[in-house]
Amino acid sequence: MAYLTVDHVTKDFPIMNGGGTRFGESKSFCVLKNVHLTVSKGEFITTIGHSGCGKSTLLNIIAGFEKGSQGGIVLDGKEVNEPGLDRMVVFQSFALMPWLSAFNNVRLAVKAANPSWDEMRVREHTQKYIDMMGLNGAEEKKPAYLSGGMRQRVGLARAFAVEPKVLLLDEPFAQIDALTRGVIQEELVRMWWATQSTVFMVTHDVDEAILLSDRIALMTNSPEARIAECLEVDIPRPRSREAIIDLPEYTKLRNRVLHFLMTQGSHGKTERRN
Amino acid sequence: MAIIWKVFSAKGVGRSSWMISLLLLAVLLFFWHLATVQPSFNPAGLTEEQLMSLEFKGDIVRTETGGYLYNPEKARGIPGPWVVVKKTVEEFSEAFHKKGTNDHGIAHLVRYTVARFAAGFVSASLVATLLGVLVGLSPTLYRALNPFIQVLKPISPLAWMPLLLYSVQDPTWTAILVVFMASLWPTIANTAFGVSTIRKDYLQVASLLQLSWFRRLLTVVLPAAAPAIVAGLRISFGSALVAVVPAEMLLGELGVGYLTWIEWNNLDISGVMFAILVVGIVGVILDYGFNRLARLVSYAE
User: Fold this and answer.
1) I need a surface site. Which of A20, A206, B237, B298 has the fewest CB within 10 A?
2) CA-CA distance, A227 to B106, in Å (whole number)?
3) Measured between CA atoms, how close is B223 to chain A, in angstroms?
């Protein structure tokens, strides 16, 4: 049943300047402690937590950029521990190659994912996803000449065009202005729906999480961050930003998440130590 | 005041900068002329015998009207702008001549220098980029080789000359190798730095796309490091250009650098000045070509 399993992952970072410790006595900082999460095929799941709580570390472990100290990631019945084309990441920083045009950024990924295709087919496939993300007319522009919103459209087109088993979104809208963000969020849902993809997103924006997700995983703060609970989002799709805010389910869910972030977020301590 | 204001305002930058350049050139030429103008000969206070002696030595010449002038063929001090212009015209009129083993026209000399420069610079750039990429990709190698690069980098390329001349036993190759040594280190250091500081997310994308090592190098690493590589090449280019002139002088290899030395040996100071001007102009033309090339690989973040 579970398509993607985050199987009891623990992540320790060694502390280099462990003040006063002698050789052999290596100290470490436990970012994630026993994080367990299962995602079904076609599901849109969001992990929400405070900045620096370890949610991006979790995403990096799923992507294969980092390795967990314990536990592992199972995708479609196989354990994965290296980055690969079955898990495409959409970066907060967009991570577009600045020397390539929007079209060529997507084309690079399409070509890598389908080495046997001829140039004609690669271009057609690339153009299809460029069109789906509403990037017509911007194909030949370099990322530096695109707005933040357009850049992330390229990032999404690149990720979707590879047709990965799971899409990993690392706070993809954090660097986009609020007005554009809403439009691209809707496009993301449309793409997700049309391509039947599985999405794992990380965010700290409560409204974004509720608007987009099937399920929201609430994450406590590090050290020893864990998934405290998962909330089902029982709001029928298609959802629109304007319509859902009047629903009682929306208000209830929103208050619950906010309450969690304000209290449980730091292991029940309301005051955060600095 | 209005003029000063115009200089410091942004409007019409192109035109006023040109005008200032021309003005500076005129001022420069004027003071050069003033500083080098030959005083007219004043025979007052000299006896007929002394005048005859001076004329006999060729210091002065008698004019048709019976007066005396300093011999224009035996000008003293630094030559003025007009003399250098005349020398330039003369040199250009026989630019393609070859009058003897050491007396080739200026066009040939420029060609020798450019060929020598290009051979040294291009081969050094290829080697340095390759080495720099390898060093930049491996932090271990970077640390291991960095002390060597740091020690070798500040050595003047000319300091290698005796050793190179002894090793290769051939001045032609030695001159090229001096240029090679001059262009090597800045490119290695900059390429290694550029490659080792590529933004992490570009490499993450490359690993997501499971690009092979070679494809990763071609499609991500080299383009991402290109601005740093070009910056290194630019420093190398400058130091190679500086090295080629004394290398020619010391090795006696025909070229514009050697021309300055030949003219000095001929005690032809206007020839030395002409040679200096040619060195400058050749540098500007090569630099322009390099900048055109550099623009192809630069990108905006």
Assistant:
1) A20
2) 79
3) 7
Q: Which residues of B touch A (CB under 8 A)?
A: 199, 201-202, 204-205, 207-211, 215, 219-220, 223-224, 226, 297, 299-301
Partner B contacted by A194 (CB < 8 A) = no
Any alpha helices (H) in A85-225, and if so which ranges? 102-113, 119-132, 148-161, 178-195, 206-212
Domains in chain A, start-ordered, CATH in brackets? 1-77+198-274 (3.40.50.300)
Which chain B residue's Cα is nearest to A113?
B209
Matching residue, tokens 């490119």: B187
Looking at residue B104, what DSSP letter applies? B
**Which one of A61, A65, A85, A99 would you mutate to disrupt binding with B, by most B Cβ within 10 Å of its Cβ?**
A99
Burial of B147 (0-12, 13-18, 19+ CB in 10 A): exposed
ipTM of the complex: 0.88
The residues near B249 (Cβ < 8 Å, ≥ 6 apart) are B257, B258, B260, B261
Q: Are residues A89 and A159 in contact, defined by beta-carbon separation less than 8 angstroms? A: yes
Residues of B in contact with A64 (CB under 8 A): 207
Contact: B299, A108; criterion CB under 8 Å: no
Contact with chain B for residue A64, Cβ under 8 A: yes
Q: Find the CB nearest A84 among B208, B219, B301.
A: B208
Distance CA A47, CA A217 (A): 5
| pLDDT for B76 | 67
Question: What count of other Cβ atoms lies within 10 Å of the Cβ of residue A272?
Answer: 9
Q: Round to whole Å and give the CA distance between B176 and B122.
A: 11
pLDDT one-digit tens code per residue, A133-184: 999 999 999 999 999 999 999 999 999 999 999 999 999 999 999 888 989 9
Structural domains of chain B ordered from first start: 40-74 (no CATH), 106-297 (1.10.3720.10)
For B210: left if phi > 0, alpha if psi spans -120 to 50, otherwise beta; the answer is: left
Q: Do B208 and A85 touch (CB under 8 A)?
A: yes
Q: Which of A85, A91, A108 sits opposite B210 (nearest CB)?
A: A85
Min distance A217 CA to chain B CA atoms (Å): 25
Q: Please give the C-alpha separations between residue A58 and each of A37, A78, B230, in angstroms, as whole numbers.
A: 11, 18, 38
**Using CA atoms, how far apart are residues B130 and A155, in angstroms rounded to an integer?**
31
pTM: 0.79
Give strand pairing partners of A203.
A48
